[in-house]
Amino acid sequence: MSKLVDYSKINSLSEIWPIAKERFKDIVALHDPHSKPEVIITYTELCEQIEQFARGLQALGVESGAKIALFADNCPRWFIADQGIIMAGAVNAVRSSQAERQELLYIYTDSDSIALVVEDLKTLQKLRPELDQLNTQFVILLSDEYSPTDDPLKILNFKQLLDLGSNHPFNPVSRTKEDLATLLYTSGTTGKPKGVMLTHGNFLYEINSFGVAFQPDPGDRVLSILPSWHAYERTVEYYVLSQGSTQIYTNLRNFKNDLKQFKPHLMVGVPRLWESIYESIQKQFREQPAKKRKIVNFFLNLSENYVIAKRIANNFSLDHLDVSASERLMARVKATVLAPLHRVGDRLVYQKIREGVGGKVKAWISGGGSLARHIDTFYEIVNIPVLVGYGLTETSPVTNVRTLDHNVRGSSGPPLPRTEIRIVDPETRQDLPPKEKGLVLIRGPQVMQGYYKKPEATAKAIDPQGWFDSGDLGCVTPINDLVLTGRAKDTIVLSNGENIEPQPIEDACVRSPYIDQIMLVGQDQKALGALIVPNLDALSAWGKEQQLDLDIPDIHASRDRIKHSSLYDKPVQTLLRQELNQRVKDRPGYRIDDQIKVFELILEPFSIDNGMMTQTLKIKRPVVTERYRAIIDGMYSQ
């Protein structure tokens, strides 16, 4: 029998919090250990502050259906503002306060917002003077700052709004599942952002469906690091808080310490986050004495054979879907033989890895992109369950997710209940059979209402039968797991007509300890090329082992300095060439056109700060291509 609180009978997000208040009372809902002062909010206090925020907005004249822009980042006050706006009967249009000012101004005007809730005075000033001419009724600061008394805008800080709300009666607003809850704007990397219209019903469907994947206990600690306004983080936050979890806010600076201090049970992240933890563990392995490294590698290799044998035996291996019953039996025997040694490896090595991430992990939830196969396998070996899901902003976002009982590594899991997945030929739109790759179409209760004020774009994305075109390529296995192979728009077409999906090849290449990041290029060229961000620490350690006196530049070195450093000496170039060749050839489904013929090194990592990664840490391919256009062109002119 499910232990989950049932929200299937309610019609709006606002109805969750009084139920949660009654059920979880003094359990901590939100904890921000890094704010000054530290913030700890119980479920009783959370519900009360959400309602106070809503009362304050109603006192300022906010009416049902009004649009209010919310430009802020992760913190408890973001959540209170988000739900307070919705409880007041309004619709919020959300984005990070760090976004470019022109994008924020576009969202404010396009969403028809009548007011603004903003991170702080600094963010507000970024939007002026244009904001002053937009008939903005009022501005709420989530900070405790005070605006100048002569400011023409009506500006209240967070506490002033709550005080206003405490003295104003609450006017409950009746909502239906079809009513709009939020406008979530796409990143706009290929044009102006589009406002995705997500309803109360979209979110409630997700909240009532996530239980098939994982069921948190009241008081379970959830570490939050992704942007709260992003569909993926936002929807999972709604779910875990509806079930009484304690959400703890962290950031990149404090993340590793917070893992050890707060020992989270659950965490939501993107592939790059799990990769960074993996890389940190690998770095620790490399720093061990040679004898210890040999022992660690022995157990990791043995355990990889063990988990693969277990997958084959249980029909959970994507690479062995068609093996015979006798082969499955042999795999079961192999797993049985290797199990005792795997348990020794667990006691000697893997248990310490789990302790390093807190020792209490029930599951890590991964989304926002495909998880590289070797990362997936590593966490399976060390017994940290990673549940990979799939979806888009336009699908609220989750459509598929792996479960603890059905965790097929390399896949994005089966669809949620009442969600349908179709794989069709990108050209003819004819249905394709299982295992055949095509375009992923989605239909279900989580699909958006459409793009705000853009009926043509909506009609292009959702056909008359309700099928949403994801733009992703993939296939469905005979046991109904979705396997993604790339983005239709990311496909690299070589001059010989061969279509290459870059992501799987990139995932294979970053298995190399000497490659931190990689992006394939080669559109309309004879062969694939790559931009590589090398792991300078690993290369330096390799040089010492080879007794080479390497001259390794730092990441701020000029292009000329890099080209004349040891990175372009024959030993290092040969090492990287061998690594690329080996990793690509070892990849399942290898073809001759997958070979990377040319590559160039860049030392500045792709990141959010330099604009080359999205907020969910996916490489912005068009941005990187434009930034390094001269280097890419030079790569092919040699």
TrEMBL record:
<dbReference type="Pfam" id="PF00501">
    <property type="entry name" value="AMP-binding"/>
</dbReference>
<dbReference type="GO" id="GO:0008922">
    <property type="term" value="F:long-chain fatty acid [acyl-carrier-protein] ligase activity"/>
</dbReference>
<dbReference type="Pfam" id="PF23562">
    <property type="entry name" value="AMP-binding_C_3"/>
</dbReference>
<dbReference type="InterPro" id="IPR042099">
    <property type="entry name" value="ANL_N_sf"/>
</dbReference>
<dbReference type="InterPro" id="IPR020845">
    <property type="entry name" value="AMP-binding_CS"/>
</dbReference>
<dbReference type="InterPro" id="IPR000873">
    <property type="entry name" value="AMP-dep_synth/lig_dom"/>
</dbReference>
<dbReference type="InterPro" id="IPR052987">
    <property type="entry name" value="Chloroplast_AMP-bd_Enzymes"/>
</dbReference>
<dbReference type="InterPro" id="IPR020459">
    <property type="entry name" value="AMP-binding"/>
</dbReference>
<feature type="domain" description="AMP-dependent synthetase/ligase">
    <location>
        <begin position="22"/>
        <end position="452"/>
    </location>
</feature>
<keyword id="KW-0436">Ligase</keyword>
<protein>
    <submittedName>
        <fullName>AMP-dependent synthetase and ligase</fullName>
    </submittedName>
</protein>
<dbReference type="GO" id="GO:0030497">
    <property type="term" value="P:fatty acid elongation"/>
</dbReference>
